[in-house]
Amino acid sequence: MNRQRVSSHSPWESVVGYSRAIRAGGHVFVAGTTAVDASGKLVCVGDAYGQTRRILQIIEQALHAAGATMEEVVRTRIYVVNIARDAEAVGRAHGDVFRDIRPASSLVEVSQLMEPEMLVEIEVHAVATA
Questions:
Q1: How crowded is residue 83: how many other Cβ atoms within 10 Å of its Cβ?
Q2: Closest by alpha carbon to 123, among 111, 106, 109?
Q3: Residues 48, 96, 103, 61, CA torsion sign
Q4: What are the tens digits of pLDDT across the range 34-63?
């Protein structure tokens, strides 16, 4: 099977041994993604909706680099550090993008993410038709 790597050029990729996304055949897997800018600095601190929107922009860029689109996403996994506080905002931002696509989705609370200010992390699986 042909395997294509998509890099975010993060220094963590070589240290940890991962890729932003992998395309294997028609399947595209985007790794857990947080709301960082091009320099790797967290954006939208304290704003779960804003972090989710930024994450989905990064995911869309990774999908495009792998030859897929948001419309081809079949599964999302969303991790939040405070589900009681942030579920509505995260769900609203997810719905802004996926309202008509409706992938299978999970929303799970975790004890923490890589940085204390990170509120949300999302990974996706898409099945590319091209």
A1: 15
A2: 106
A3: negative
A4: 999 988 899 999 999 999 999 999 999 999
